[in-house]
Amino acid sequence: MYEVELGTTEYRSQTRVVGMKKSDRFRHTYMIGKTGVGKTTLYQNMVLQDINAGRGVCFVDPHGEAIDYILQHIPKNRIEDVVLFDPSNLDFPVGLNLLEWKDESDKDFLVSEAIQIFYKIFDPEQTGVIGPQFEHWMRNAALTVMADPEGGTLLEIPKLFVDKNFEMHKRKFLKDPIVQEFWEKQMAKTADFHRSEMLNYFSSKFGRFMTNNMMKNIIGQKKSSFNISEIIDGEKILLVNLSKGKVGEVNAQMLGLILMTKLQLAILQRAHVPNEDRRPFYLYVDEFQNLLTDTFISMLSESRKYGLSVHLTNQYIAQLPENIRNAILGNVGTLITFQIGAVDADFLKKEMQPLNDNDLQNVPLRNYYIKTIIDGTPYEPFMAKGFAPAPRIEKNDYSEIIRTVSELRFGRIA
Ligand SMILES: Nc1ncnc2c1ncn2[C@@H]1O[C@H](COP(=O)(O)OP(=O)(O)OP(=O)(O)O)[C@@H](O)[C@H]1O
Ligand SMILES: [Mg+2]
Questions:
Q1: Which of 60, 80, 172, 228 is 20 to 30 A from 364, comparing alpha carbons?
Q2: Mean pLDDT, the chain, as a whole number?
């Protein structure tokens, strides 16, 4: 009866399975708990159930260990479905272009998201490091590189402001009168010293990606190596390894934000697909707070109707910006709280009534409270315990084959 099992609970001295039905999963799941309590383990367990059942999933892993585990347990019949995005694999860089578009209307969405991504990385508190001037240049420059029928990338943007030939080449393709006017009227009047000021500004943001070979080989490719719409509609398995240790924190965040923006666009494009043809897709984002833009989170309620089930987790909620907290708590059907600290317990007790702060702070290790819905009806929270990770069985471990197959299909040899 359950589509996915989350663990067991003791009820009247009997052990019962805790799970979620399919329709309830599209009301999304949020999980919270201190370090080491078992959050990632619970999600990796659910992901493997989804994979075993043939569903389409994406798992975003900020450390890499969960992906290693998942790969070791993927069944043989799904080997070919796996797309492994591992930026630290320098021999096979996978292309990822944020500015790729299909319909005219995608462009504005992508440009707004690109701006949000820069805010999120370089000015998360919105202190003015990035401001309306940057937005204006960035918007016009991005639309200019995107006008090229061959495609354009984020990394071409700074070049527009220093290389006149390049600027003129890109401008040939422009049809948008507002962007044309930006170049003809505003930029033409901009003195050289002002241009170099702009360039410095862009270089300080983009420079680190342009001088880093790994990033250049990924976000500098005009054509992405895989098509996220095909992954979603074809119910494939996208595993995203953003191991900060190997990739670097800012790079990992940039890649995560780009991927999630592309995924969101692919989901929104399903508005054109008849309801019954929207295959369900299950997204898991571990330590989501740096990897999703505000737009993504505020669209949780809509993603349900496009067949996207979202699972988020992180260690703390009280420090997240208020709009994000509200969007999460207002839009998740299932809330899972492992052991949490005093501030979060105080914050979440309203949601978890009749439990109090004390209950929420004193959950035994690997146990959690779950407040969920069954057939759309909310239930009072109760305690449960997740399943232990399964041991690796050598003869069933296809991880090396999966890595090789994915490299050959999606990685371009550098
Ligand atoms: N139900 C369980 N039974 C046995 N071992 C478990 C269980 N859940 C988790 N573990 C083990 O506990 C350790 C920590 O779990 P996990 O990595 O899932 O924690 P986490 O909440 O994601 O922590 P962090 O916030 O630091 O990422 C792991 O070694 C994991 O294998
Ligand atoms: Mg974890």
A1: 60
A2: 94
DSSP 249-311: HHHHHHHHHHHHHHHHHHHHGGGGS-GGG---EEEEEETGGGTS-HHHHHTHHHHGGGTEEEE
pTM: predicted TM-score of the whole model, two decimal places: 0.96
pLDDT, tens only, 114-161: 999 999 999 988 888 888 888 999 999 999 999 999 999 999 998 888
How far is it, in rounded angstroms, from Cα 35 to Cα 24? 27
- In the chain, where the domains are located: 4-87+228-410, 104-218
- At 217, give phi and psi (nearest 5°): -70, -15
Burial (CB count within 10 angstroms: exposed 0-12, middle 13-18, buried 19+), residue 262: buried
Q: What is the rounded distance in angstroms from the CA atom of residue 409 to the CA atom of residue 72? A: 20
Query: Phi and psi dihedrals of 199, rounded to 5?
Result: -65, -45
Q: 388: Cβ below 6 Å to ligand 1?
A: yes
Q: If you take atom 6 of ligand 1, which residue's CA is the nearest one?
A: 388
Give distance in angstroms: CA of 39 to centre of ligand 1.
6
Tell which wins on pLDDT, 202 or 322.
Answer: 322
Tokens at 260, concatenated: 């999630």
* Pocket lining: 41 vs ligand 1, CB cutoff 6 Å: yes
Residue 96 has pLDDT above 70, yes or no: yes
Q: How many CA atoms lie within 13 A of 364 on its CB side?
A: 5
Q: Cis link prior to 158 (omega < 30° from 0)? A: no
Report the nearest atom of ligand 1 relative to the CA of 44. 18
Question: In this structure, which residue's CA is closest to atom 1 in ligand 1?
Answer: 388
**Which of 39, 41, 59 is the pocket-test mutation for ligand 1 (most atoms within 8 Å of CB)?**
41
Q: Are 167 and 183 in contact (CB under 8 A)?
A: yes
Phi/psi of residue 363, nearest 5 degrees: -75, 130
Q: How confident is the model at residue 414 (pLDDT cuts 50, 70, 90)?
A: low
CATH number of 4-87+228-410: 3.40.50.300
